[in-house]
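Help needed: design a sequence for this.
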């Protein structure tokens, strides 16, 4: 089971499907955590899985990290369709809303919450239920709103890697299809500055420290050769002068 802070992805190993836990929060502090690029790859896979499910006219509803399994090749598999909804052929897929208010946009918002959890280690799921009298937003991890929430009612994602994509998943007029989400995620790894800002700079700093450690002995040798050695009076330095004087 992979975990980033409180975030996890279940992992199956071997034919016995025995599960092992990888505490990404702990491993990150030890310096061997799963990096942002690997997590981005998982999210890209997850987005395409959901897109294919939607193409078969099925709404997932329960989109969460707990429902994505990693096989022995670290490839994702999706499980648990107990809350899913099949949309009939005479309904418009993007405009359909079930009796429980499940829709394509709801799935996209839940996937945005999954991205947020994987990348930040914090959870924030929300539901939109017009029947309630007032917003139920006391719980920071699960909120229910009477109308679609504005950005001010949701966590700030400015400092979270993929924060712009999370925001567009959450926004009512943001992404409207999983194909749009897939396109955004597939192009996210073409932004090296964002990847570096998300934690790769730590590796870069380690590399620089290593280079400095390697460079220090070399620099010391050069300084000795240029400055110190010429000033030393070794016995053999006197031999040429002795030979010249003896020749006279």
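Sure. Designed sequence:
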């Amino acid at each position: 089971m992979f975990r980033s802070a409180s975030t996890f992805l279940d992992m199956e190993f071997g034919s016995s499907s025995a599960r092992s836990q990888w505490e990404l929060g702990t491993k990150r502090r030890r310096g061997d955590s799963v990096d942002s690029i690997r997590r981005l790859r998982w999210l890209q896979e997850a987005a395409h899985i959901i897109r294919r499910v939607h193409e078969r006219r099925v709404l997932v509803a329960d989109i969460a990290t707990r429902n994505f399994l990693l096989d022995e090749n670290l490839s994702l598999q999706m499980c648990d369709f107990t809350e899913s909804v099949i949309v009939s052929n005479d309904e418009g897929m993007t405009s359909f809303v079930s009796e429980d208010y499940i829709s394509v946009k709801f799935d996209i918002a839940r996937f945005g919450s999954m991205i947020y959890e994987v990348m930040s280690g914090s959870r924030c799921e929300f539901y939109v239920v017009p029947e309630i009298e007032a917003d139920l937003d006391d719980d920071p991890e699960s909120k229910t709103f009477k109308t679609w929430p504005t950005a001010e009612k949701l966590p700030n994602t400015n400092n979270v890697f993929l924060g712009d994509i999370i925001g567009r998943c959450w926004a009512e007029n943001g992404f409207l299809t999983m194909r749009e989400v897939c396109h955004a995620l597939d192009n996210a790894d073409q932004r090296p500055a964002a990847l570096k800002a998300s934690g790769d700079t730590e590796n870069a700093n380690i590399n620089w420290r290593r280079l400095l450690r390697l460079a220090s002995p070399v620099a010391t040798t050069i300084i000795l050769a240029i400055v110190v050695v010429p000033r030393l009076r070794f016995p053999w330095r006197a031999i040429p002068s002795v030979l010249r004087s003896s020749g006279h």
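The two ends are 88 Å apart (CA to CA).
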